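Hi Y.,

Following your request, here is the sequence exactly as I used it, all 78 residues.
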Amino acid sequence: MLLEILSADEKIFSGDVDSVILPGVKGQFQVLNNHAPIISSLSDGKIVYSEKSTTNSLEIKGGIVEVLENKVSALIEK
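Below is the corresponding structure, written out as tokens. Let me know if you'd prefer a different format.
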């Protein structure tokens, strides 16, 4: 699935990933391939994403995420 992480200033990441763990306001949740459509607010925490055999993380202050048709779009505050 395609993950895009954007802030007001820049595109932080864009690429294919296997999974994404996001800090939702009611707790962490994971998005995998073929996930149902969702829009959620994000709180302080880490976005953790796996691409191939590498795991990366990014600290955020909040934001919003949309999952639609194997595309995850996260608009974040750094």
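The chain has a mean pLDDT of 96.

Thanks again,
Q.
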